[in-house]
Design goal:
By secondary structure, this protein is an alpha+beta fold. The protein is globular, with a radius of gyration of 17 Å. Helix 1 packs across helix 6. The chain has a single domain, classed as Roll (Nuclear Transport Factor 2, Chain: A), CATH 3.10.450.540. Strands 1-2-3-4-5 form a five-stranded antiparallel sheet. It is 28% helix and 21% strand.
Length: 229
């Protein structure tokens, strides 16, 4: 959002510790039926992004999964950057994975503080259905064009701290390529299942939160302007 190289993923990570054409949506029948009783996943994502845009930390926290909310509160963290009057977002296609899982494609745009030009970051949000509706469990987005998407698990703040450090180190390394050797085994993708999971190296596809399978949407592709439900 403010750093073109890192995008919103790094910004979310940092503050957690301090139009394209219509895209196809693969809806599981059970998920379609279940979605009739509660607002669909894209409604929760829209509300979350609006809370982020306006700096409503409490509102953003309320839209996390119970585990993500609990863990971030225990560590006194906020999984949202400061509000921005220049930010905007687009909600794209929703892909239902199972009764309790979905992916929502989005684009987040803001003016880069260094260049003064708009910077757009495609982001896929992993959402889980909870008793009180759909809630945000994590996100995936490109930080470095030559590496796989960075997955942030909101249910594991300690992992977010680790990734924040790794991304910061990689940014520094790329800014000063002669100053230090390439990072050997930086790990930024991590599966999510409950409280902990083993990390996977850069170059592997990040896993999704519990109840949510790997996204089939392509990060970097503009989301559909009208999501199917």
């Amino acid at each position: 959002m403010r750093r073109p190289l890192a995008g919103m993923a790094l910004l979310l990570c940092c503050f957690a510790v301090g139009c394209g054409g219509s895209a196809a949506t693969k809806d599981a029948p059970a998920a379609q039926a279940a979605a009739k009783s509660v607002p669909p996943p894209d409604v929760a994502v829209r509300a979350f992004l609006e809370a982020v845009r306006t700096g409503n930390d409490t509102g953003a926290s309320e839209l996390l999964t119970p585990l993500a909310k609990q863990k971030t509160q225990e560590m006194e963290l906020q999984v949202a950057p400061p509000g921005s009057a220049t930010a905007s977002y687009k909600i794209g296609a929703t892909e239902y994975i199972a009764e309790d899982g979905a992916h929502v494609a989005t684009e987040w745009t803001d003016v880069d503080a260094e260049t003064g030009t708009p910077q757009t970051d495609p982001i896929i949000w992993m959402v889980q259905r909870q008793p009180d509706g759909w809630r945000i469990a994590g996100m995936a987005t490109k930080v470095f064009e030559d590496q796989p998407p960075l997955f942030l698990n909101f249910e594991d703040p300690e992992d977010m701290l680790r990734k924040q450090q790794l991304v910061a180190e990689e940014i520094e390394r790329r800014a000063n390529p002669q100053a230090q050797p390439p990072a050997a085994t930086a790990q930024t993708g991590q599966p999510v299942s409950g409280n902990a999971a083993a990390a996977t190296p850069v170059g592997s596809t990040p896993a999704a939160p519990q109840g949510v399978q790997k996204a089939s949407a392509t990060i970097g592709q503009a989301p559909a302007t009208t999501p199917r439900r």
